[in-house]
Design a protein that fits this description.
Layout (H helix, E strand, L loop, with lengths): L1 H5 L2 H18 L2 H9 L3 H28 L6 H15 L6 H15 L2 H34 L4 H17 L2 H8 L8 H14 L5 H28 L6 H16 L9 H10 L6 H18 L1 H11 L4
């Protein structure tokens, strides 16, 4: 039932519209527009440069995962696939459509469908785990400054680490759960092949370590982008607090609950900034800039997609 709702464009559109309507009813949109207009050109240019670096890091991370399982694809091809699929995914819940497009296109290039899906699954899992780690570390550090304990987040981080480790043994627990007969037919066979492909990474600790470090760096890079946007419109909040609220906002963007990242993720950010006495118009302006910067990062993929659709002479 939940999967059907989150997969429905109508449900997500209604939820996004409801949240935006609520924010509009409680926030003076004219003040929000003026806050957006205050964005410093220097901050905007710095964020554009960081967005380019962001795309480079995220593509490099995926290439490491691809090559760790022996798939042969040129860096240029991997970059094209990632950028175009990210553009496609910006119209789907949580970017799921982008993942599907990436898996399909990579499979066409390598003829290794299970390995292609496994690389994307590990990319997602390690990205989410890095968010949990950064958010936990930021909240613990902020808690020490404010005297608020954050022991629960250590439990969350530990649970995330255990879940990632368990995924590397998917071949064993899938075969334990599925009857042998099911492993040989239909969906059971595909699931078993995928579990085997994911479990290949168990023998690639260097690749996993490199991808996890790059993922942590990527999350920090995105938090720096948000900080620069905040400074650029005059929000005076310590960088340490961005380490607290931005992981929550980024996880909200990953969930299949919004259209284009608007709506509920913005609500999360606005609510969390209230704890630092940030005026609602400025908080909404910052959340909007964060979402728009993510969409802007997908524009190169749109250009590549349109170019590939042009008929050749």
């Amino acid at each position: 039932m939940i999967a059907r709702l989150t997969g429905s464009i109508w449900f997500r559109a209604l939820l996004t519209a409801a949240v935006l309507a609520y924010l509009a009813s409680t926030i003076h949109l004219g003040d929000t527009a003026r806050a957006l207009a205050r964005l410093s050109p220097v901050a905007a240019l710095a964020v554009l440069a960081l967005l380019a670096l962001d795309r480079g890091v995220i593509i490099w991370r995926w290439i490491i995962l691809i090559r760790a399982t022996g798939q042969r694809v040129r860096a240029k091809s991997a970059a094209w696939i990632y950028l175009v699929s990210s553009f496609v995914g910006s119209f789907t819940p949580g970017g799921i459509g982008g993942d599907a497009a990436r898996a399909y296109t990579l499979t066409q290039r390598t003829s290794q469908g299970s390995d292609a899906v496994a690389s994307i699954a590990m990319d997602r899992v390690l990205g989410l785990f890095s968010l949990i780690l950064v958010g936990s570390a930021g909240t613990i550090a902020w808690g020490r400054q404010t005297g608020r304990p954050a022991g629960a987040l250590l439990v969350v981080a530990a649970a995330g680490g255990i879940a990632c480790a368990a995924l590397l043994w998917a071949d064993r627990w899938v075969r334990t759960i599925l009857p042998v007969r099911w492993q040989q037919i239909g969906l059971g066979r595909r699931l078993t092949r995928l579990a085997d492909a994911i479990s290949q990474y168990r023998k690639q600790p260097r690749a996993l370590s490199a991808v996890l470090l790059l993922s942590i760096g990527l999350q920090l890079l995105r938090i720096v982008q948000a900080y620069l946007l905040g400074v650029g419109i005059g929000i005076d909040v310590p960088f340490a607090y961005y380490l607290v609220f931005m992981p929550v906002g980024l996880i909200g963007l990953l969930l299949p609950i919004s259209v284009g990242g608007f709506g509920l993720p913005q609500g999360f950010i606005v609510a969390l900034l209230q704890a630092q006495a940030v005026a609602k118009p400025e908080a909404l302006a910052l959340s909007t800039l964060i979402v728009l910067s993510g969409l802007l990062a997908n524009l190169p993929g749109a250009l590549l997609y349109l170019r590939s659709r042009q008929p050749r002479a």
